[in-house]
Write a structure and sequence with these properties.
Helix content is 33%, strand content 21%. The chain has 261 residues and is an alpha/beta fold. It folds into 2 domains: 176 residues, Rossmann fold (3-Layer(aba) Sandwich); 63 residues, no CATH class.
């Protein structure tokens, strides 16, 4: 049984269709990345999954008692408000010192408990948000542009931490990012979204799909292969087909153009 499955999900704002007939499922321990241009419905999709947006059509089926941790794009904290990392982790519900220390360690932020939130670097702040999402021992961890504003080494380190979490905690991970070659290299499966699902499959399959190239350009395929080589030292990069089945070329009709409200 998948942790969560979406069936023909559609969301409309006014007269605009933002998502149309989106269907996919996520299984335990899987890393799935959603990529797509601005306005493609990525954040709306995540908001629907966490229950913050009600779909106009379709179903979202969650396994009973599914625990979801969520890391937003950004979170504004009043810079005049004195608040330590430890205090932040106890909002809105108090957690024990041991719970806080464990979550910070898992997020790679074990030395930050006594630091003021306003004094953290961008990378440290995102790791604290990750620690907060880990407090519920999530079965599904959702990250919406979690490395926005970080430099390339900071982003790569963050995604390496995510891979480690999958290995140590066994949770599934659903990510949205614009850093195509970095985030795709850390993924088991990629879903290319543009209001509908254009193509999906393993990273190399999607990077070679015509639908993906039409949205992002052919140069991203080479960038992905290069990053996978440097990151994993692999030499077995297959493109396009997997055991004779090209899932990346399963296209679906595009909906009417969509805009966010």
């Amino acid at each position: 049984m998948p942790l969560i499955s979406l069936q023909n999900l559609s969301v409309r704002f006014g007269g605009n269709t933002v998502l149309s007939n989106v269907s996919f499922a996520i299984s335990a321990g899987e890393i799935v990345t959603i990529v797509g241009p601005n306005g493609s419905g990525k954040s709306t999709l995540l908001r629907s999954i966490i229950g913050a947006q009600h779909p106009d059509q379709g179903q979202i089926n969650r396994s009973p008692g599914l625990r979801i941790g969520y890391v937003p794009q950004k979170l504004h904290i009043d810079p005049t408000l004195p608040m330590t990392v430890r205090r932040f982790l106890s909002l809105p519900q108090r957690v024990s010192d041991q719970q806080a220390a464990t979550a910070l360690e898992q997020a790679g932020a074990g030395q930050l408990a006594s630091r003021q939130m306003v004094n953290l670097s961008g990378g440290q702040f995102q790791r604290v948000l990750l620690a907060r999402a880990l407090l519920c021992a999530p079965q599904l961890l959702i990250l919406d542009e979690a490395t926005q504003g970080l430099d390339q080494p900071g982003s790569a380190g963050f995604y390496q931490q995510i891979e480690t979490l999958r290995e140590t905690l066994g949770c599934a991970i659903l990510m949205v990012s614009h850093e195509l070659h970095v985030v795709m290299a850390a993924s088991d499966r990629v879903i290319c979204l543009n209001g509908h699902i254009c193509c999906e499959g393993e990273p190399e399959q999607v990077a070679s799909a015509p639908e993906y190239r039409a949205l992002f350009g052919s140069g991203t395929q080479g960038a992905l292969a290069l990053y996978r080589h440097e990151h994993n030292h692999r030499h077995d990069h297959s493109c396009g087909h997997d055991h004779g089945q090209d899932t990346a070329n399963q296209t679906r009709p595009a909906p009417a153009s969509e805009t966010h409200p």
